[in-house]
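Lecture 7 notes: from sequence to structure.

We start with a single chain of 349 residues. Read the sequence below before looking at the structure.
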Amino acid sequence: MKRRLALTAIALAVGASASLTACTPGTSSASELVVTTFGGEWQKNFTDAVVKPFEKENNVTVKQVTLYSSDALAQLQAQKSSPQMDVVFFSGGQEAVAAKDGLLAPIDPSALTNGPDLIAQATSDLAGGQGPVVQITPMGLLYRTDKIDEPTSWNDAFNPEYRQHVAFTDLSNSYGTLGMLMINGTRGGTIDDVAPGIDAIGQSARAGDSIITKTSSDLQQAFAARDIWLAPYSQDYAETLRKAGQPVGFTMPREGTTGSFITANVVAGRPNTDLATKFIDYALSAGAQEKFVTGMAYSPVNTKAAVPADMQSKILSGPTLEKLVRFDPAQITGKSAAWQNQWQEQIAR
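Now the structure, written as tokens:
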């Protein structure tokens, strides 16, 4: 008989806190998986695209635990000697730290039946013990199509014609960090020197030319009620704003862009690593990928996933994805505290 124990920590769900339960190692059967999710719309689409069909096709039970990426990493580290999760999703590069710490079970590329159909970036870090990229949401510029023409450069965020109609995102949000790094690069900065990017955003905010938002919901409110026309943010959120009735477009600036690379990782020390790998492989299938395209406007990593005609102008796909800059997550993690200090000095002046 299966025993269930309360998870030893309280996980932060997206927008709410929840007390969660999971099975202890050694008591979960070969027909059961414990996986993390990001909550909200992501979890809703994830359940429809992956969890329910996988359960049906494989006669298994998938238990979902809603955790932010940083919280998921913290739990893996705390549970190293007694892991309680089978598959962990990360969106901020935490897989690099988890793999280095031996918290992940490496995936043999031959175990991924969808491997040959994936873009190169999806499996480029398997050799390092990290899981594959299952979704990508590129960064770019969100803009009001009824207010301005399609912007072409990251520096359009500083166009005098748009002053008081621009929103940047706080570095506590990973999208804010990625947007800052792209702006920083156009101004001569590097990942070792982010002063150009932080200074430019800080000066704009202090002058009253722009506002700083912290969360996705804050940004939605800014577009709806604060007359914001332009914001560096993610591709998927443009679709969220459109569904909320906002006339918002998304574009990749000519200088190029980066994105949030969501990875699926098998946890080391669990009895169901083969089933966990099969679950991840299912998430990489063309059918599952197509549901994330239509449901959340994520870019598919499976080249055989069909992008509907009405979505082709809204998302980046195919060869374009191979051009995305992927910053070293270990560097970002190691430098984030210093960047936060620089940011606060600029914004709080």
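The longest strand covers residues 133-144. Keep this in mind for problem set 3.
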